[in-house]
Amino acid sequence: MAKAVNKIKKFLVSPDKFRGSLSAAQAAHAIKMGILAVDKDALIDEVTMTDGGDGFVDTIAKAEKNAKIIRLKTIDPTGQTLTAKCALLNDDCALVGLSEASGLNLVSDPDRNPMKLTNIGTGQILAKLVERGYKTIIVGVGGSATNDGGIGLLIPLGFRFLDAEGKDIEPNGEGLAKLDKILPPQNKISTKFIVATDVENPLFGENGAAYKFALQKGAKKEDLPLLDANLRKLAQVSKKCFGTSAHDAQGAGSAGGCGYAMINFLDAKRVSGFDLFAKHTNLDARIKAADVVVTGEGIFDETSADGKGPYALAKLAAKYKKPVWIFCGNSDIDESGLAKMGLSNVKIGRLAPLAANQLEALNRAPKYLAQLTKDFVSAM
């Protein structure tokens, strides 16, 4: 009798970052090691995910043959000098990732406070690229440390945000409380902007930037009403000064309101960060070629369905009837929760139960992620 031939399994490994423990690239490597530990013949297609946040510049630039990464001097969210990378896709188009100069990953835990932190650093990068004459600038806004409605992006471009006495307000979430007037730049900006957002939320309200995401950035619960009220004030003053406010636009609440700043004040075209990633990396074809799609992020919860990468990847894989494993530090989503999210093709794997405590799970995340992967592959 002929011996059965085991079909070689093909895995698409495309995780997002596990905030506080693993970059997307580190997570992908741990998953790859876990697969190969069980199945040394497995074929692994590895592509680190970005939905507009961490890794946006590296991932998109890597996928574009003629892209060139450059570094520009600017400041981080606390005002400290740093050198941040951006990419030149061609002679006319530049690519900027908000997280490179204004990301939560740049701020230590004790300093995380969206009331105080600023996006000025990313604004300085935009201003330098505009000055250099780039006709199109694509900005990935995700992973921010801020909740300032995006005014930090606009100030270096020539916008002024003034209090009732005509003085410049502090360019942060707290400073917006004093906002009374907005002045546009003296010189018209001819650059075309595209904003890639990682979520679809509006600027304010129960699903807005403050209430949905500020706690993840170090805000206290008692800060949320003020942060939300300040974003409302930004919208009100915009309407007073310009006759319009795009606060309900899809993605306006991304990155603490940076999506709003770009759509409302720079007339930016909004695209999904994940869709941009999928287009540049030929993701549909890679999913079709895979037997199993493996993704993940630090926390997989209901906010993941607002447009974040692992959720979007799982939905895309469902289109091709591919099984998806979502690995995460923790998740409160059960089978009924997955059904509500429309993810019948998904299994969730959690790192937290494998570790003695949360600190160990964070410190030894590569080990536990590889172990979790081994368990899933062994159970196939």
Key structural traits:
380 residues; alpha/beta; Rossmann fold; Glycerate kinase, domain 2; 2 domains; 6-stranded mixed β-sheet; 5-stranded parallel β-sheet; 14 helices; 13 strands; 34% helix; disordered N terminus
Name of the CATH architecture of the largest domain: Alpha-Beta Complex
CA radius of gyration:
21 Å
Can you tell me the CATH superfamily of the largest domain? Answer: Glycerate kinase, domain 2
Biggest β-sheet description: 6 strands, mixed
**Helix share bin:** 25-40%
Neighbour order of strands in the largest sheet:
3-4-5-6-9-10
**CATH topology descriptor of the largest domain:** Glycerate kinase, domain 2
Strand segment count: 13
| Low-pLDDT regions | 1-5
Write down the secondary-structure element order: EHEHEEEHHEHEEEHHHEHHEHEHEHH
How many domains? The number is 2
Mean pLDDT figure = 93
Gross geometry: globular
Q: Beta-sheet strand percentage?
A: 15-25%
What structural class do you assign from the helix and strand content? alpha/beta
Distance between the termini: 25 Å
Contiguous helical run count: 14
* CATH domain class of the largest domain: Alpha Beta
